[in-house]
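Example record

Each entry pairs one chain with its bound ligand, iron/sulfur cluster.
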Amino acid sequence: MDQNTREQLLALFQGKLNRTIQMYLETCTRCGVCTPACHAYASIPVPRYTPAHRAEVVRRIYKKYFKAQGKVLPLWGQAKALDDTAMAELFEAAYSCTGCRRCMVYCPFGIDTQQITAIAKLLLVGANMEPEVLSMLADVSISKGESIDEFKEGFIKGIERLEKQVVEKWKSHPSGTPIPLDVEGADLLYVALAGAHSIIPAAAVFNAAGEKWSLSFFEAVNFGAFVGDPTKTKIILDRIINEARRLKVKEVSICECGTAFRVMKQLSGSQPFYVSSLTEVHARYIRDGRIKLDKNKIDGSVTYHDPCQIARNGGVIDEPRYILSHLTDDYREMSPDPRYNWCCGGGGGLVALGEETYDFRMKSARVKAEQAGQTGAKILATACENCQTQLDNLNEHYKLGMDVRFLSSMVADALVE
Ligand code: SF4
Ligand code: SF4
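Structure tokens for the complex follow.
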């Protein structure tokens, strides 16, 4: 690595050094309490998969360049030069961490290892060493936001092709449009993923509830966040914020995508609209009597996987259970309880990397597969696309024999007058 690149990367590092991050980097006592908390280490017990090791890879660079001893004593054992070897270690640390923050709830100091590995991701982006596919997907989202008029016609045609299936799920719809688009003054803007599975069940439930809603032109997923690029994350987020402001909606509801929900909820700042997850909206409809569900429509015992970004990191824990209490009399909670739930092992961009990460995802999520299997439930419900894909892979790999389902599709299937 040449000196110029190193200086640019250190400038990026310095930009992240607020008081909280410095506290995280300086407080760790290596007590090891967080070690068994990480699903990767619990499933593959080798030191490089401990939270403390991942953080240490970043911390050593911090000590070398931002602490007095590291600057004065070049061979100080705890400091490490930012070179090609260090970049390879940063890659391994960043892309073996799903950002689930389970380690944080165990750490007596509340050290957020995800925020430390975010520095690793940022340095990889700065050195053009991040997974190319994630950056490319982020660029596609950005380009769609910049030239939405070119995409609109194709998008509208694609949506029209889904309308029949929405009406098959729920015939009555107050506006006469099964999937309304671009509705100024709508109460709720729904931001879906690219795919019928994310639009049809949600549309049926909105229509059943008599919601005055509008579908967003943009997909919810934020690949900028997966790749750890704050600039791209913000541009992708702003497309939705600007659309919501233009339509003057009161609420922006994010589909079953954990990262999209967390990013919108935590990074959109003060806005004239409320941010909700689709799960929260469905729970509200049931509570307010706007939709009714028939338990007979769901066949077999059910367990629920809490997506880390929606539950532990987003606070949505009671709502899915409330919904499930209206869907089944045979709900089986996983152990341990939701705040300490095992990560599915697919977050942080790992599922988006597909086959490339498959082997690691399967091995590092053994504890998740065991946790789900121990419930004996027939249906494994969840509310995040990443989790659903990963759980589906785990189901097949570990031969769990479960039916992995989106919670929203179960709600749509159980709708009754
Ligand atoms: S955030 Fe999750 S994956 Fe990352 S180190 Fe902590 S427990 Fe492990
Ligand atoms: S629990 Fe906290 S203090 Fe202990 S090793 Fe982990 S991060 Fe460091």
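The domain at 3-130 is CATH 1.10.1060 (Fumarate Reductase Iron-sulfur Protein; Chain B, domain 2).
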